[in-house]
Design goal:
The complex is a heterodimer.
Chain A lengths: L7 E2 L2 E2 L4 H29 L18 E8 L1 H25 L4 H4 L5 H5 L21 E10 L2 E8 L6 H14 L1 H6 L8 H11 L11 E4 L8 H11 L2 E3 L4 E4 L2 E6 L2 E4 L2 E4 L22 H6 L4 E3 L16 H9 L6 E2 L3 E2 L3 H9 L4 E5 L9 E2 L5 H13 L4 E5 L5 E6 L2 E10 L1 E4 L4 E3 L4 E5 L13 E8 L20 H12 L1
Chain B lengths: L2 H34 L5 H11 L3 H8 L4 H9 L8 H14 L6 H16 L10 H22 L4 H24 L12 H13 L3 H8 L5 H10 L7 H19 L4 H14 L4 H5 L3 H24 L2
Helix pairs in contact in B: 1-2, 1-5, 1-7, 1-8, 1-9, 2-8, 5-6, 6-7, 8-12, 8-15, 12-13, 13-15
Classes of the chains: A alpha+beta, B mainly alpha.
Chain lengths: 500, 313
């Protein structure tokens, strides 16, 4: 199955990539390779690392960064933006419903046992409305593309989605490595993400908060794989990065320990899982939590972003019902499509899956990071037999989807420029009365030839994602590295605008 | 500021300062040992180095008598020594990583690049005829870190806690260096070539040889060396200069925190007073060792007191 290449569509360069294609041709392989090495040094120095478990070696590995950007045309993005907003609003409405009146369960549109028996379901959220009515303050929606017009949602992430720091650092790196190339494209900026995040978090301050809200980022600590991102976000927002032991609760109010004594905390952007929030509410053995935090939350004295129990909405077994949620809550048609999904729990669908393992991708319903996954077309008979056995033993744990021909983008590999499969994770911020999405997101790329697994824990890399402010880059007279860039078209337009 | 953040900044400052001090002392010892070799007294130099770094007892337990190769290894890359260069850089980096948000990018890069460089070393890079080069590298990294802090950090409490750690470590180092060469400053010490080398080495260990000439314009005399390292506020590595800064820092911190922090301020004030309570002549008359022991002990109590006041929260 030939994949759609986002740059070379059947021999013709697609408009958004014209500038990139010209650059690649002019620069040549050696110059690009030099840029790639420069990028690696840059990232190592900044300290952008990602701890990968169970692989030995360097515990602070760099996620490989590919210097060829992934480009999205303005019109394409506008549609994605609308679709993402619609989807996140639906997921939020779903959470408000299942922890409240449960209309969607009563109507029988989503099986009640799937929700109430879900491991992400939190009874403590029943009959409680989080500040602003928002559960999914920060979500990451994983999109894949199979054709010029065909985008699908592969997965929703409503717990503690990560990767946004890479989105921001990738852009910084590109601006440093390719100032000319960036200059001739009108790329929608992303650098204001952290300001938007802070605004969003502040807008959801709890009712008890008077005046300016004090926001903190709660991290499990330096040994967490995403610690770099936690510190990056706190730094960019200018707020404290706290660990559980830095916080304590007194009279249902949360305080942090400072050199000047206790200081009240209003909004917690927590990057720890539900179970590690509060040992009194969840795991008494946890050292990471803050005793009494959930009681303070329920008393309306502090905001947790995201809300506990938001994980039900991103469960892979709940995923097939999202289009129905959109229709049910908003009477709208979904703008973004789901990938058809077979639930192995259902006998009929299970039989189909077992018969077609070679064509399907089988995933754990509750897994993440690309672990425990079978990519049918790339599997051996032995692997398929193992999975068939597992599916029969625990059908409820597995879902299956057709193997999509994920779109490819040219990527600098050892053998030169090669098409590699990509996905896209945009980050959606849901505030009190506004949804904000910074244009683009994190593009992940499967660096191994033919591989469809983009997860960084599985050897994936990242690319900068450019959403163009206009549909095609202006014609530049010279785009070579080190050459003089003269993007006269764009400049005259700007000047004309200012004079007018 | 988070108490934990203040604690990490304090220790970050201490460890970066300590790494630089170890490198200085090691370079001076190499020089002194070469001078002492013809007289067969170089072993004393290596033993003195262990005393100066406050790691003698620990070393003895693990390795027995000091040998040049073993002591060099102990102070450079041996991770069993919590004060070795490798341990200092590792500890500095993990403290820096835990408070990444409180550092400027330049500070973080200074610490992180150092750590990356350290990991690339193999044991031969910090021994034999490469040892001096290694020490120079370590010193340059410590200087880069302090320079990056001085030139890029906001003068807020984060700066003050880092500086507090640096100054406490520096005062301790200078006092220990003097103590480790106490015999060259004892009443009976003659003005011979050996002692002259000792006085010179003491000054070199705190980068103060040139400063001595600028201040006194005369050949080295032990009382002057003691005066410079102990009580002259002009030299940034004198015990006096360190305590002046500690006093100022604690004054501002105690004010901005609004609470009664009397205990540690009183201790710091007392230590500062001890530095200038006596004339150099009086100290040279057999009172130096006692005073240095008192300062080293007081310094350690001051560290504990600052911890209780600010860093536990």
């Amino acid at each position: 199955m030939p994949a759609f290449d986002e740059m070379n569509d059947q021999g013709a360069i697609r408009a958004p990539y014209e500038g990139i294609a010209r650059y690649i041709e002019t620069a040549g392989a050696e110059a690009l390779e030099a840029k790639r090495r420069e990028a690696e040094i840059l990232f190592r120095r900044i300290g952008v690392t990602f701890a990968v478990y169970n692989q030995g070696g360097d515990p602070e590995r760099l996620i490989p960064f590919d210097v060829i950007p992934r480009v999205i045309a303005r019109q394409e993005w506008e549609r994605l933006h609308r679709g993402l907003e619609q989807r996140v609003r639906a997921l939020n409405a779903f959470l408000a419903d299942i922890y409240g009146p449960r209309r969607i369960l009563k109507e029988g549109l989503v099986p009640a046992e799937l929700v109430l028996g879900n491991e992400g379901y939190r009874e403590m959220m029943e009959g409680f409305t989080p500040p602003g009515g928002v559960y999914t303050v920060i979500s990451g929606i994983d999109l894949v593309r199979t054709g010029p017009e065909d985008f699908f949602v592969l997965e929703d992430n409503c717990r503690v989605p990560s990767g946004v720091s890479y989105m921001l650092e990738n852009r910084e790196a590109m601006m440093r490595l390719f100032p000319d190339l960036c200059g001739v494209h009108r790329i929608a900026p992303v650098s204001h993400y952290c300001e938007e995040l802070l605004e969003t978090l502040k807008s959801l301050a709890p009712p008890a908060c008077q005046g300016e809200a004090t926001v903190v980022v709660l991290t499990p600590g330096p040994f967490n794989s995403a610690y770099y991102e936690h510190s990056f976000l706190a730094d960019e927002m200018g707020v404290e990065l706290v660990e559980g032991a830095d916080l304590f609760v007194q009279d249902n109010t949360v305080f942090m320990r400072t050199t000047a004594g206790p200081r009240r905390v209003d909004v917690i952007y927590r990057r720890v899982d539900d179970e590690f929030l509060d040992p009194l509410a969840f795991r008494p053995d946890s050292m990471l939590g803050v005793p009494g935090l959930i009681a303070a939350y329920r008393a309306g004295r502090v905001t947790l972003a995201n809300a506990p129990g938001a994980g039900v909405a991103d469960d892979k077994a709940v995923y097939p019902f999202v289009p129905a949620m959109i229709r049910f809550y908003f009477s709208e048609e979904p703008i973004l499509q789901n990938v058809p999904t077979y639930m192995c729990e259902r006998a009929e669908e299970r039989a189909y899956v077992l018969d077609h393992l070679q064509e399907l991708v089988v995933k754990l319903a509750r897994g993440s990071g690309g672990y425990g996954m079978l990519v049918g077309p790339h599997s051996t008979a032995e692997q398929r037999a193992t999975f068939a056995e597992r599916i029969r033993a625990r059908p409820g744990d597995y879902i299956a989807q057709p193997t999509l021909a994920l779109s490819t983008v040219p990527t600098l590999c050892e053998a030169g420029m090669q098409p590699r499969h990509v996905d896209l994770r945009p980050f959606v911020l849901f505030g009190k009365d506004q949804v904000r999405i910074v244009p683009g997101g994190l593009t992940r790329v499967a660096l191994r030839e033919g591989s469809l697994v983009v997860n960084s824990s599985q050897g994936g890399g990242t690319k900068d994602t450019w959403v163009l402010e206009q549909d095609a880059p202006p014609m530049a007279q010279s785009m070579g590295p080190g050459g003089v860039t003269q993007s006269m078209g764009g400049m005259t337009q700007d000047l004309a605008g200012k004079q007018g | 500021m988070l108490a934990r953040t203040a604690d990490s900044l304090f220790w970050l400052g201490r460890y970066m300062e300590r790494a630089g001090n170890v490198a200085r002392a090691l370079n001076v010892t190499l020089r002194m040992a070469a001078l002492a070799a013809p007289r067969g007294t170089e072993a004393a130099e290596w033993a003195g180095l262990l005393t100066a770094t406050g790691t003698g007892a620990h070393y003895q337990r693990l390795y027995g008598d000091p040998t040049p190769v073993q002591v060099t290894r102990w102070l450079t890359l041996d991770t069993l020594n919590p004060s070795s260069v490798a341990s200092c850089f590792e500890a500095a980096r993990s403290n820096a990583r835990a408070v990444r948000t409180a550092l400027t990018v330049d500070m973080w890069e200074a610490v992180n690049d150092t750590w990356i460089g350290l990991r690339k070393l193999d044991p031969d890079d910090a021994g034999g005829d490469r040892l001096m080069g290694f020490n120079d590298w370590v010193l340059s990294r410590a200087l880069l870190f302090h320079g990056a802090s001085t030139d890029t950090m906001l003068r807020d409490d984060a700066w003050r806690f880092g500086r507090l750690g640096t100054m406490l470590e520096r005062a301790d180092n200078t006092a220990r260096l003097l103590a480790s060469r106490a015999s060259a400053f004892s009443p009976g010490a003659e003005e011979n070539a050996e002692n002259y080398a000792q006085w010179q080495g003491t000054l070199r260990s705190v980068s103060a040889l040139r400063a001595y000439q600028h201040l006194f314009h005369e050949r080295l005399r032990p009382a002057r060396v003691v005066e410079l390292l102990l009580m002259r506020p002009e030299h940034p590595r004198s015990v006096m200069a360190c305590y002046e800064e500690v006093n100022d820092l604690l004054g501002i911190l105690a004010m901005s925190e609004g609470e009664d922090r009397v205990a540690c301020r009183r201790l710091a004030g007392a230590l500062r007073g001890r530095c200038v309570a006596h004339t150099p002549a009086y100290l040279m008359n057999g009172h130096l060792e006692g005073l240095l022991a008192e300062i080293i002990d007081g310094n350690s109590r001051l560290g504990t007191s600052i911890g209780k006041c600010f860093l536990i929260g």
